[in-house]
């Protein structure tokens, strides 16, 4: 066993797996003094990832957000066995990360493909905690924030460390107990090893507020478009007693529900429109926001004209057909949202289960 693991029976590592998206990636870390008299620390990192058909990329970054994060990215390189390592950051949240000259110096110690599946890279980030941003690395922290992201369909296969990266298909955040990662051994420890079980150790997973809010977004809009709007439409079409009062009264609750639900998505979503289901979902959602706001205005004008002229006018038909379009597109967007939400779900495991499974496997290391 490496001297770097002398302080801990289990490695300091985080693993994320999602079979539905082909995501299987891990990071293990060891920290050590840059030299015997230095106040700064080097970070030794091993990243392991499965790239189905040698497509996609995997990344881990310091901090709890992309902005200012020091990101370590690997993807398939040239040929059958190439692996490329790229270290990047971004100064604007959700902007694509880029290589910058002011990033800490790093060295790729080793790249290998284990068992023909796991693409692994060992990286040394020299004086890594000297990178002073809001996402600064603190090797003394028992809860150092980290983020992860992965994509499994992009044609990477390049030795270029600056290729543009496709939008991630999975992402999240966690904290590592960096105290357990500090080496008591030599200034230059052996490379960190991954437990063969590929489970997380010395880790706390951070609940992602974005996931919670997107669930609320889906619940609010499903109720609004699939329950409240059809009932309101049935009331006015069914000519029930006090139909206008009941119809408009229900819509007074429906419309704020829609506006609130869509506003959640506008606030937490990224603004990169594409031609896939996510991009279509966003465009329809923005259109529905405008039609939902327009409908009560058209409805009120229709009602006033109906009283005045004792019949429908052009505005009446605008209100009727725009309402049908709104409900129909609302149903479509709810279904798209369910598809997107299912594709983004990440399996979670209780910490106790992880430890029990680790004990069954034993403290083997690959």
CATH class group of the largest domain: Mainly Beta
The CATH architecture of the largest domain comes to Sandwich
How would you describe the shape? elongated
Strand content: 15-25%
Number of strands: 11
In the residues, how many domains can be counted? 2
Mean pLDDT: 82
Write down the secondary-structure element order.
EEEEEEEEEEEHHHHH
Q: Can you tell me the CATH superfamily of the largest domain?
A: Cellobiose dehydrogenase, cytochrome domain
End-to-end gap: 10 Å
Uncertain spans:
1-9, 343-366
Tally of contiguous helical segments: 5
- Report the biggest beta sheet as strand number plus sense, adding barrel if it closes: 6 strands, antiparallel
Rg calculated over all Cα atoms = 26 Å
Keywords: Electron transport, Membrane, Transmembrane, Transmembrane helix, Transport
Subcellular location: Membrane
InterPro entries: Cellobiose_DH-like_cyt, Cyt_b561/ferric_Rdtase_TM
Transmembrane segments: 219-238, 250-271, 283-301, 321-340
């Amino acid at each position: 066993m490496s001297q770097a693991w002398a302080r801990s029976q289990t490695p300091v590592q985080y693993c994320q797996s999602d079979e539905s998206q082909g995501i299987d990636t891990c990071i293990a870390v060891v920290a050590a003094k840059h030299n015997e008299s230095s106040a700064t620390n080097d970070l030794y990192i091993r990243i392991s990832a499965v790239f189905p058909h040698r497509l996609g990329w995997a990344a881990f970054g310091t901090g709890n957000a992309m902005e200012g994060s020091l990101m370590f990215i690997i993807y398939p390189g040239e040929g059958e066995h190439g692996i490329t390592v790229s270290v990047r950051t971004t100064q604007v949240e959700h902007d694509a990360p880029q290589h910058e000259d002011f990033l800490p110096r790093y060295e790729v110690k080793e790249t290998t493909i284990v068992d023909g599946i796991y693409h692994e890279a060992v990286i040394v980030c020299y004086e890594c905690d000297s990178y002073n941003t809001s996402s600064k690395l603190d090797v003394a922290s028992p809860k150092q924030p980290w983020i992860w992201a992965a994509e499994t369909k992009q044609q990477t296969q390049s030795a270029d460390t600056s290729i543009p990266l496709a939008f991630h298909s999975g992402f999240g955040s966690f904290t590592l107990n960096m105290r357990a990662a500090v080496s008591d051994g030599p200034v230059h420890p052996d490379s960190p090893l991954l437990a063969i079980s590929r489970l997380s150790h010395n880790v706390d997973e951070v609940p992602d507020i974005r996931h919670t809010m997107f669930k609320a977004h889906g619940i609010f809009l499903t109720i609004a478009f699939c329950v409240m709007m059809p009932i309101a439409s049935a009331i006015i079409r069914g000519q029930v007693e006090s139909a206008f009062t009941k119809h408009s009264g229900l819509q007074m609750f429906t419309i704020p529900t829609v506006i609130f639900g869509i506003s959640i998505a506008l606030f937490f979503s990224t603004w990169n429109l594409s031609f896939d289901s996510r991009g279509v979902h966003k465009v329809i959602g923005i259109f529905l926001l405008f039609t939902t706001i327009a409908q009560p205005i058209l409805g009120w004008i229709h009602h006033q004209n109906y009283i005045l002229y004792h019949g429908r006018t052009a505005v009446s038909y605008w209100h009727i057909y725009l309402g049908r379009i709104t409900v129909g597109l609302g149903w479509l967007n709810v279904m798209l949202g369910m598809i997107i939400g299912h594709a983004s779900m990440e399996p979670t495991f209780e910490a106790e289960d992880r430890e029990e499974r680790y004990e069954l496997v034993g403290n083997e290391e690959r």
